[in-house]
Each structure stands twice: as structure tokens, then as C-alpha cells.
Amino acid sequence: MSDAPRIPQAAPQPPNVLASAVRVFDLSLGQMLWSRRSVFLGVLLGGPVLLAAVLRVVDTLHASGFRVNGAAVGGSTIFGMMIWLLFIRFIVPVLGVFYGTSLIADEVEDKTITYLFTRPIPRRAVLLGKYFAYLVCTVLLVLPSVMLVFFLIVPTGGGSIGAAFPSLLADLGMLVVGLAAYGAVFALVGTRLKRPLVVGLVFAFGWEPAVLLFPGYLKRLTVAYYMQALVTHEMPQDSSMSMLLQIFHEVPSVAVSLLALAAIVGVTLWFAGRAVEQREYVLEQ
Amino acid sequence: MGGLVVADHLSKWYGQVIGLNDVSVTVPPGITGLLGPNGAGKSTFMKLITGQLKPSKGNIAVLGEPIWQNPGLYNRIGFCPEQDAFYERMTGREWVTALVRLNGVTETDAAAMATRAIEDVELTEAADKKIGAYSKGMRQRIKMAQALAHNPELLILDEPLSGMDPIARRKAIRMIKDWGRAGKSVIVSSHILHEIESMTANILLINQGRILAEGNVHQIRDLIDEHPHTVHIKADQTRALAREFLGHDDVLSLKFEEGAVVVQTGRPDAFYARLTDLAASGTHGAIHEVTSPDDNLQAVFQYLVKA
User: Fold this and answer.
1) Closest CA to B186 of B205, B199, B167
2) Residue A280: its chain B contacts at CB < 8 A?
3) CA A104, A108, A114: angle at the middle one, nearest 5?
4) What CATH number labels B228-306?
5) pLDDT digits (tens, 9 = 90+) for B28-67
6) What is the domain class of B5-222 according to CATH?
7) What is the reported pTM?
8) Does B14 contact chain A (CB < 8 Å)?
9) Do A118 and B74 lie within an 8 Å CB cutoff?
10) Is B94 part of the contact surface with chain A (CB cutoff 8 Å)?
């Protein structure tokens, strides 16, 4: 029965979390990329591209540029508005909620978690590997969408791709940081709470916009507060809420924001990993 | 602490529901069958000895160590769970290789180990097909392959023969016995005494969260034989099979269900042996699946509890 390669029967070293996480990442990325969730959210991310294409066609046909509140705006400004309104306020939190809350829940629902939890790897490595897979998967979904929007929109109204390109790189970096932060927060929500999707949506679209409207310390308990500092575009004044946001616009420095977001990622992932280590997952028969 | 698995006043409850109630048992090396109807506590016991659940009370040691939050121990254990769950888009080979890699081996070694394990479960021809296209029997065997690929000392198999056709069942039983002969210890659960008996004489009888009996199977077997045993057979030619069955006096009754014939037999041993030969010969077409409802055991357990 056994002239195949055999590994030692007793593990000589405690399993390494990072090395194990990389292996879980390998196993999970393909599953995540081709999941129904990714197909659905990929279609959602086609929305901004479609909108940008329509704007480009309108601009080409009328060649008179765009006006906001009577003032002519260039392609870069419209691109900045789309980054704010579509990507930062909507798409990044949505991706974070839908993927982050389901990192472990999907495996539990599919009853495949048993295969991962009965291998010689720490349970937190399963969470970490799946989190890395989430990050790569969502970056692969978001970045092409942003780049397509950029190349379609920025040339309108006489804008220059070359001049705006550095800001695109900053935007891409900022979106990766946002995906990392929201994903980690919602991974914690997914491992700790019942109905994590509802809680996640309330956090992203209830709590965060609400507390940003008011002065004080509460806004520091949001991801959005720190994300604002990383956006190179001016905040659009598209609604009364945006006007209020402008009034109480208090933006931390880039360094403080990056540090805070790194701390959010580290702390939330640590607690999420701890929850996975300690929790019993009873699969329905 | 001797023994492969040592449970000491082990209890597990889910809220108000008791899954396992003050169980103290020592499982010896070799092949041990865990026998009990559905809901008896088998799955809870299996989940406790594989570290998926934490004991509510008492202690459990596997291979001399506590298993809860002890991932290093999984290098020495292979587990084949009951649930029919897979990454369906992967091929059998990809899936086993990916899982063996989690044991910390290189990609090359993992591929070689997966290949050998797939050979052991006689699934080489289907190894590169998507798991989603596998039959029930193939799915059971690929689950076994992932459990044994890393050469564990202890194999824990939860209802491994469930849903297999007679030929696959016979092969699986032979494999399990071979593993036992090769020096591995195996804990295998089932709700069918006949299955357990064909692998080992050493059983743990579990019902209502308690170990009712442990040791040699033969005394229990006599009790089983006093009760009719129901077998559900999915086949191409159910009527031809039924005609064949009716020619034997151990068949007490039979009825037809959609694509299946359901037989009550007074001598399960003889019946299963004949059924396997029939499946192998193909005289009455293909036999796809053989299952046995757990109410076969229920009457025996009720008798034991009263006794």
C-alpha cells in the first residue's frame, strides 16, 4: 500500500500560520474567483464602466464638455466624482460586506469547512488565507473597472490622461487599502455575529454615513473617516448630506489614516481569527 | 492513558439537547466500529474525536493528546466526514492534492501522495474528472482518498459506505480491512451492523448519547438477526431483481418504489452476499445504490435499553 512519499507522522514543529494561510489562499482563490458572488459583483462593477461609456459617447456627440451646477468640469473632476460616489461610498463597502462576512460562512454553508479544520493548520490560518484570497479577488474585480472608467472619462472635456495618471495610481492604492480595511472589519462581523450580512450593511450604509455627519469622536469608529484622507479628489457636493459632510469635514493626515487603517486590519483580523479558533461549527445534517 | 481514543466522562450538549451523555470509553488499536441509529450520538462522538467540537464536560484524548485546538495532531489523523460536500469544480486529483498540501508538504510530494491515495481507492481513471460529475460511490471513495493520503496512524470514517453500490461497498470494505492489516487503526461509523461486522468484530454500540455496549459483535448480531432487516436497492431492472429475490426463503417481503425495490430479509448476511454477486454478474442490469434505513437497528436498541 505504501511506497508513495510519506510525511513524518508526528509534526515536529507547530504549524506556521502564514505558511498555512498561503496554502489555504491557493485552495480558495480559484473557488472565490469563479463563485456566483464574483460573477454577480463583476456585473455590478460593469455599471460604472457602462456609465462612463455613455458619458464618453455623449461627450463625443456634443463636444461641449460637462457642466455641474452651471460650471464646466473636466474629465478628471467627473472621474473624481465617480471614485467618491460609486467606488468609495458604495462598491468598496459592498464588496467588503458580501465577501468579508462570508469568508468562513460559505465553507460552513457548503459543509466543506470540515476538510480545512481537520488538517494540521491553525484555524486562524484558514481565515487569513481566505482573507488574502478575498483581497486578491476583489482587487481583480475593482481595478479593471476603475481603470476602464479612467480611460473612458478623463479625456472628456479636454482632460489629459498623462496628467491625471498619477492620481489614478493613488486611487488604485487607496481602493486596495479600502478593500483591505472593510474586508477585515466584515470578516470580524462574519465570525462573531449572527446575521452578519444585515449587520454589515447597517454598518456600511447606516452607521458610517450617519456618524460622519456629526462632529466629535464617533466618526473615528468608522473606516470611511480614515479613507477620506487618502482620496486625492475633492468631495462632491451632490446632495444635502454631502453639504453637511463638507461642513463637518475633518480629515486626518494621510499618515494617521494609513496607520489607523493598518491597525483596523490587524486588530479586526486578530479578533476574527480568535473567534474562529474558539468557535464550534455545528454543520446541519 | 492507553488506547487510541480515551473518553473520560465525556458529555456534549447543544443548548437543551444532549448529544453525548457521560461517556467513558477506551477505543483500542485496530478497527473499531461505531454502531448506532441516526441521532444516537455517533456524529457527535465523531466530531469530538476529530476536534470539531469541544466537550461540554469531561475529557477526550486521541493518540494520547487532547484534540481540541491541537492542529498538529491532524498529521496523525485522517478524517472522512459523512457529509457529501466538495469543491465541485475541482477534479478529484486537484482536490486531494490541495488538501494534502495543507499538511505542509511540497506541491510535488502532495501530487505524488494524492496519486497514490487515489490508486488505493481505485479511482485512478476518474481522477482528472470534475468531482461534480462523480457518482455517489466515487464521491465516497475520493473522500477516503483525502483522509488517507498523508499516511495517518488513525483513520476516522463517518458512514463511509453510505449510498455505495454493492461492488463499491465490497471494495471499500476490503480497503478498510487492508488498512487495518497494514497497521493503521480505523474507527468507522455506521448504522448497519452487517457493514461493521464485515470489517471488524470490535464494536461500540451507541444510542441516545450513551455507549450501550462495547466489545465483540457476535452477541449483538444474534439480536439483529431476530429482527427483519430492510434494504433499499436502486437498480435498472427492479422487477427482474424482485423475481430473483422471491426465490429465496430469507426474503420476507418486498415492495416497489420509484426506481427501487425495497426488501425485508431475515438473514441480511446471506442477502447482501447474494446481492453483491448479482451486481458483479450484471445478470439483472446495473444496481446503482444500496441503502438501509436505520430503523433496522432501532428495534434492537429498544430491546437492549429495556434489557
Assistant:
1) B199
2) 52-54
3) 100
4) 3.30.70.260
5) 999 999 988 878 899 899 999 999 999 999 999 999 999 9
6) alpha beta
7) 0.83
8) yes
9) yes
10) no
